[in-house]
Amino acid sequence: MAEVTRFQTRDRFVAAAVEAIVDEWHRCARQNHAFTLVLSGGATPRPVYEVLAKRLLKGGVQWQGTHVFFSDERMLPAGHPQRNETMARESLLDRIPLPEENVHPVPVAATPEESATLYEQEIGAAFGSPPCFDLVLLGMGPDGHTASLFPDSPALMEGNRWAVAVPAPEMKPRVPRVTLTLPVLNASSRVLFLVSQQGKESALERVLHSESCPGLPAACVSAPRTNWYIDASPE
Ligand code: 6PG
Fold it and tell me: How far is it, in rounded angstroms, from Cα 33 to Cα 110?
């Protein structure tokens, strides 16, 4: 059962998210295994990543044994301001001494399908077997999408692939995407949804009462540990 926590200020939301991420990082270090983290895109995580970068520079984390992936990516050129990778590099990855070979963005390729295949190869090379990410960060849109799994998308029915290409959605940027699939998300040790409540109240109400899939992709995510951190501040 998902655990839901609402925060009345953005600062408390950000601080709690940072501590949850660092706790997982330390848990992996105690268990002496690599920490595999999936970053979500959109706007909500940016302040979390900025504070996380400062927190990590205080020390106490293993860089070599850490690998960072992405929940999904917009099919835009490397460095494009609307790529999720660009936001993550600006707010976090360019501010910490994580080796570049430990950062695994969705590759830019000739077609979205090729990008998805290359990304699966990258995931396979890191895990050597079906992936089990230690911590997956996810957002949710006003329509209940998460990553780039949009309502009623055929991608929601994907049972084997780890990553797939999806056509351009209605929301901006209207470009094709590559997204991790539900089997991968649900095989993760822990999923942490980071959601800014404004404009999403209706979807949140439906999701948190587990309205069925495929109309509400975020409700289809159920990892062994699934937490919802909701920024309920009025900002
Ligand atoms: C993307 C994200 C997407 C995002 C939600 C919420 O590529 O846009 O992966 O799933 O998490 O749309 O976005 P906000 O945090 O900006 O509301």
Answer: 35
